[in-house]
From TrEMBL:
<keyword id="KW-0963">Cytoplasm</keyword>
<dbReference type="InterPro" id="IPR023200">
    <property type="entry name" value="RMF_sf"/>
</dbReference>
<protein>
    <submittedName>
        <fullName>Ribosome modulation factor</fullName>
    </submittedName>
</protein>
<dbReference type="GO" id="GO:0006417">
    <property type="term" value="P:regulation of translation"/>
</dbReference>
<dbReference type="InterPro" id="IPR007040">
    <property type="entry name" value="Ribosome_modulation_factor"/>
</dbReference>
<keyword id="KW-0810">Translation regulation</keyword>
<dbReference type="Pfam" id="PF04957">
    <property type="entry name" value="RMF"/>
</dbReference>
Length: 65
């Protein structure tokens, strides 16, 4: 198994897949989309972290404008 891929209850995930989920969540939060993470628990956690960060950034930008 590659060093960046670890098994979990959802199957297999990699650093790349976690980063992609985070980036997708961040963009969704940044653009004001509702929270709708993927079903895989680990990927959903990464997506939700990105969404939270993106949503917070959007709120900060709205306060400045």
């Amino acid at each position: 198994m590659a060093p960046d891929a670890l098994p979990d209850d959802d199957g297999h995930w990699s650093l790349e897949s976690l980063n992609k989920a985070y980036q997708q969540g961040y963009m969704a939060g940044l653009t004001g989309q509702p929270s709708a993470p993927p079903h895989a628990e680990v990927l959903a956690a990464a997506w939700e972290a990105g969404w939270s960060d993106g949503h917070e950034q959007m709120r900060r930008q709205q306060k400045i404008a």
